[in-house]
Amino acid sequence: MSLKGLMTAVAVMFLFSIVVVAQTEQKQPAKPIRPFVVTRAQSLADIQKNLQSANKAEDLIGGAGMELRVAVQHEKNMTAANAEIHDASDDVYYVLEGTATLTLGGTLENPKEVEPGEWRGPRITGGQKVEIAKGDLVVVPRGTPHHRSTINQDFTMLLIKVWEDPRPAAPTPAVTPTPTVKPTPSTP
């Protein structure tokens, strides 16, 4: 075999090995990062019933390390103190019971950043008022001024909040070391 033939054979084998390695290192689908969640209709109905007595929310999913919060929220005869804008999260409302009045879009007046990316203001100017009722689905994209009122209304919704990045872990409280008491040596 000539030197030229040997070099050609080596080159072919080298290229063949690159193709084999490339084929064995193909990208694989992601693995689940946490267990899936199934909430049965009866459980959801029980949550709704428990919330009916007050203006409150119960988280179903969410927390540190997640880009998602799912909660059942109940409001009766109230209006949010301030309109709001979220820089890094979208809100999705699915109305389970009752009605509410939303103001969407426009301009948030006198915006104040209450925490990073979370803005509040006393009202919205130029927004569109929308009445929502059972079965309605509302998507409020990040950056959209919004305000909800349930004055003279009873309202329950499924709130789905989708953040741009996972939520940070809550700060852990500092642990104060427990002092140890050494016994005093006894004297005979």
Question: How would you portray this structure in words?
Answer:
The protein has two helices and twelve strands; from the N terminus they run ααββββββββββββ. The chain is an alpha+beta fold. Strands 1, 2, 4, 9, 10, 11 and 12 form a seven-stranded antiparallel sheet that branches. A three-stranded antiparallel sheet has the order 3-7-6, with no helix packed on it. The chain has a two-stranded antiparallel ribbon with strand order 5-8. The longest helix is centred in the first third of the chain and has 22 residues, at 3-24.
Primary descriptors:
7-stranded antiparallel beta sheet; 188 residues; alpha+beta; elongated; Jelly Rolls; single chain
Major sheet, described briefly?
Answer: 7 strands, antiparallel
C-alpha termini separation:
98 Å
CATH class of the domain at 41-163: Mainly Beta
From the structure provided, what is the oligomeric state, counting identical versus distinct chains? single chain
Using only C-alpha atoms, the radius of gyration works out to: 29 Å
Unreliable spans are: 180-185
Helix content: 10-25%
Strand content: 35-45%
**Which topology of the domain at 41-163 does CATH recognise?**
Jelly Rolls
Order of helices and strands: HHEEEEEEEEEEEE
Quantity of strands, as a count = 12
Q: Let me know the CATH homologous superfamily of the domain at 41-163.
A: Jelly Rolls
Gross morphology is elongated
Mean pLDDT: 82
Q: Class by helix and strand content?
A: alpha+beta
Provide the CATH architecture of the domain at 41-163. Sandwich
Number of helices: 2
